[in-house]
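$ ./design --mode recover --in tokens.txt
reading tokens...
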């Protein structure tokens, strides 16, 4: 996966208690956060979901900061905008691989994938993503995410 970066705009209107989050390059993609400290994570989650949907539908993504996009939001739409650079992982396309795995484990993987409506490849990729997000402690073992 490749990481791209997009701009999110967070705004707290005087009559609101929640920060509104929107993405100028992704019309209709929004989120909210109770505290400004929560804005980056909420923005990452919203953008990741939007990118997954866009890619799954076979549509192209807007240009990112790395690709020279200079996003500007209309300041008249906001009370006190805060701009946040949001990273998102973008798939680079599939690669065919050959792996060896115990047959009984493979059977369990296939059954679990079928129950979830997933392919074997999708199931294995999702498991790998979850493990990659789990920090490795000093001894080399994985510790649970905070």
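writing sequence...
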């Amino acid at each position: 996966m490749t990481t791209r970066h997009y701009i999110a705009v967070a705004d707290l209107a005087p009559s609101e208690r929640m920060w509104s989050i929107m993405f100028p390059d992704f019309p209709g993609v929004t989120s909210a956060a109770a505290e400004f400290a929560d804005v980056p994570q909420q923005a990452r989650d919203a953008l990741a979901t939007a990118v997954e949907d866009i890619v799954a539908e076979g549509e192209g993504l807007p240009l990112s900061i790395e690709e020279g996009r200079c996003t500007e939001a209309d300041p008249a739409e906001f009370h006190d905008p805060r701009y946040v650079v949001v990273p998102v992982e973008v798939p680079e396309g599939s690669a065919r691989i050959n792996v060896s795995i115990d047959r009984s484990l493979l059977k369990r993987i296939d059954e679990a994938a079928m129950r979830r409506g997933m392919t074997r490849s999708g199931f294995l990729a999702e498991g790998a993503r979850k493990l990659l997000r789990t920090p490795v402690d000093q001894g080399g073992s994985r510790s649970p995410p905070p």
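exit 0
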